[in-house]
Design goal:
Elements lengths: L20 E4 L5 E4 L14 E7 L5 E9 L13 E8 L2 E7 L4 E7 L7 E10 L4 E4 L5 E7 L2 E7 L17 H4 L1 E10 L2 E8 L9 E7 L7 E8 L13 E5 L2 E8 L9 E6 L22 E2 L4 E2 L5 E3 L3 E4 L7 E4 L6 E10 L3 E8 L3 E7 L2 E8 L2 E10 L4 E11 L5 E9 L3
Parallel strand pairs: 19-24
Antiparallel strand pairs: 1-2, 2-3, 3-4, 5-6, 6-7, 7-8, 9-10, 10-11, 12-13, 13-14, 14-15, 16-17, 17-18, 20-30, 21-24, 22-23, 24-29, 25-28, 25-30, 26-27, 26-29
Length: 418
Amino acid sequence: MNHQYAHNPLLDSHIFIPDVEAHVWEDGRIYLYGSYDKQGQKTYCSDLYHVYSSDDLIHWTDHGVVFSLADSNWAKDCGMLYAPDCAYRDGWYYLYYCVPDGRCGVAKSKFPAGPFEDVGQIQGVMGIDPAVLIDDDGQAYLYWGQLSWCQAAKLKKNMVEIEPDTITQPLTVEAHEFHEGSSVKKVNGKYYYLFADTHRHGSRPSCLGYAVSDHPMKGFQYGGVIIDNFGCDPAVWNNHGSMMCFQNQWYVFYHRSTHGSEFSRHVCAEPIYFQEDGSIREVLQTTSGAGTSIPAKEWIPAHLACGLTGRVRIEGDAASENNLVLGQIANGDTAIYRYLDFQGETTFSIVMKTNDVCRVELYIDDRYFAELDMGACNSYCTAKKAIPPVKGIHKLAIQFYGNFTDASVDAFQFMAEG
């Protein structure tokens, strides 16, 4: 299905890009630099990077493989590339990458989407998830590390070496509940340090938290959570992302896992807002993402759910037009969609399969709205039901009840016809 509206995940359903750093360069486009998960694989990342760019957060260009371990002159046998970042200086784009053992390297290109040519390992840096900030005075800083090994240092003007005597620890586990995933931006004279935050869910790093300082390398005070991806999948574990201003609106970029796992992670984005005191208001996961809502009259792929409860998860299905479905649905499971724009539609239609009768209940803003019964159907079938008209932008929850043991949903739609 060709969607002409903003939604989460940002990219096509078969593209799994976690750990995203977003940048807007001189051409005005927004570029996403992230790891590259492979669908259904039970491990983090892969051995290559893609870059994606857009001028509207709806239509995206895949610039292909821009760097891989095969391009590295020192890390060819490391198996995987973890979270990268990119920086621009003096006509060159510098791609900072890392491998599982904690070593980090740099590659460079004349173009923001590469291809990038390896420069080599960054000596004196040991820790995953490198991030770069170039300050207003031209001084560049590198951040890296995990847990208590959170470090920062000045970069030399060549952008490939650090100044070892400047290494410091900007965040700690004790004061900030830092886990990993450094990302630093300067906003209104303040330094905002985003990271995977373990304040919730039994120390699971599902939050993107932030800390603020007047200095790029020290004095960071914990500010709170920007977004929590808990509930996107039954087995979700981590979060990692960044924030960027695009066309006068700030967004937080984060990821959601799928397939009942910690892996196969999609990049998502939400608008964020700074308060007068400089704090950032926490936002919820949504289906509409960078847009305010999705037209309810459109066929909406079921995998755009922004919250799941129970056993249900987003998983692959070759019989699906959308590549992904809501699968392994059990009695009492719920899928949540924020937010849909209703214009008085009078029919609900759903495409699903189930091995026994399934009652599908609809809730608008947590209030019961309508229901239909889906009869046993071993391949994807369409069921329709007349519903009371509703208008406005609302949260939709779909709940499933019955004695079925195997059910999946491909898509649904609200129509203005009987």
